[in-house]
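From the pipeline queue, job 12 of 40. The input is one protein chain; the requested action is below.

Action: predict structure.
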Amino acid sequence: MISVQLQQPLLLEPLYFSYVWGAPIEESWVISRFGRQTPPGLDRIAESWEIVALDAELSNKLLNTQEPASTLYEVLLHNPRTILGTSGSLTKLPIIVKYLDVFERLSVQVHPDDATAERLGFGPSGKSEVWVVLDADPNARIWAGFAKQVSRADVEEAIRSGELVSLLQEYTPRPGDCYFFPPGTVHAAQGHLLIAEVQDASQLTFRIFDWNRIGTGGRPRPLHIAEALEAIDYRQGPIRPVSLYDEKRTSGALRLPSGPKFILVHWRIESPVTLTSEGRFLVISLLEGKLRVSGGSFEMTAGPGQTFLIPASVSSVSLSPIGGTAPACLEIRPR
């Protein structure tokens, strides 16, 4: 039996992934903005998975346990209801929280809904996701949804001619922009971007266009055009971002657009806030500033970029600002 204290936040070691579109180590905002050590063996960082428990391989290691090899997935196997409460399956969290360190062009892609994924033979592994832009260089762009009404035939022709991007709504992202991508939304990005992503617990992505580039190994990365054409929501118009940093908003909670499997709230914390578990787990992802996190039997300090899971067994948690700047964080709960 794994020895872990379930009356306190679970602290997790990020999983890093290097893809062709990620930031070189010396340019990585995940490393520089969050004060992290460089992961060994990587020349780029594309994604940092902060909370994941898909299976025995794709799961964070626990940092506050006596067994250094213990993973969140293993702990869930032994303590599913203590951690998850009344939500999620017995061994699987319904969400993944990650940071994207986009430096080159992210492929034009789409995620299916559960019904389409199952019909295509992948099981009910649909995916919606939310992007919160933390930083962006002036040349960065995000494409999200179709700019005008299109048909499947329009999209097929645009794919054949290499003009798919011309059908999409283009945005110049700014820090604080929040984009919600329902399943079926065609989207892409380019330029240096630091994005906090909250998504359903699925890896299913259909790559439609990869900018004609050569991937690792000297070959193009695979495309999934047939599957994508089945998954695309041809009625999905522009995905207009919500701004987190309205001039009139200095503190408090802002409910963000999100999918059917999770609830997402952005906080600016100027004075102590108490969150109750309501019998379910919750996740806190600290985007900027420092917090004092306390509960019945624990107290800890969290810094920028840190994400932790509050088990359902913890009835409430208090978040208090440290320093002169109001910290900003995401509160993530299952529906």
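Job complete. The helical segments are 29-34, 72-78, 80-84, 114-119, 152-161, 225-231.
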